[in-house]
Request: fold
Amino acid sequence: MTSLAREGFTIDHVGRFVRDSLLNERLTLPIALLAFFLCLDLSESYRDTLANAASWMGGRLDVERIAKAGRIALYLGLVGALISLGKMFVKWTANNREATNPGDWDWEKREIVLVTGGSAGLGASVAQKLLARNPLITIVVLDIAPLGWVPPEGSKVHYYQVDLGNSSDTQFVCDRVKREVGHPTVLISNACLAHSFAIMESSYDDIIRTIATNLTSTFLLVNEFVPEMTRNNHGHIITVSSMGDHIRGVDSADYYAANVGISELHEALRMELTYSHDAPKVRLTKAKFNLLRSPLVKDESGIANFFSPRLHLETASQSIVDVIFSGYGKTIVLPGSMRYSSTLVRDFSSSGL
Reply:
């Protein structure tokens, strides 16, 4: 489980406490069952025994209060059970009802993880955590910037410098990766450009490079590497974006437009893998983060950290690494409270409020 301890006390901790206590069906349903048992038409001697025990503990046996508490525990337990069933349903439908078997993933010999934008920031943190989890894993880093970290001695890290905003350069380096390392089985599309210009203040180059790097390159990498995954019915595609497809600022329209495009790519790819290519074990994960503590992102929201915490890179990268090694695809939303606030913002925006 990904912890938000690095970010301090936030609304997610409150939500987790409620889920683990009041909405924990494994706790509340037994309480409801106990209350039901205590309210049965028991023999007078047994009821006297219970009343004496309650008196000894400083209370009294009040059947009406016990029945009311039991009903409340039952309702809370049913809500918790529905939440758990909903999560199970989402997990199995998102993974085409195909379970991951222990031998499906061979991280030391078979798997190749390709990370775009892996020279620094979130991509570098993901690569380093992968190596910490399994030092023998093969990692390919694509980035325009030089590799900003030193791989451990003996690790199988391959770095290729490439401008992902240039389609011909991207195609050339993808051919090199397949020829020199092999076909990636895990594709992490993380490379990103962002600026804070309004639409009419942006240059042609700003707009074209942002869309090309953030969105077009993801399409091209899927086109290059996913066909081999579908042939083997084995792989994992992870697209990293932000809450920008729900919550938008005043500037950086090209960045937000690319986020929406990435979400649409993810959904379209899910449909194609299921219905066109019969590759149910090619997993898909969409990672959506709010604000990262990164030089790329400026926090000008003015919202208190409790409601909208800025995520440490380690928190975001750990969530990606966890889902990779789980063998299942999912939608990662951090902080978790953004699942609900983004829906409200989208609804208010669509209504003109």
User: Anything to note?
Assistant: Residues 43 and 180 are 81 Å apart (CA to CA). The chain has two domains: 5-94, 112-350.
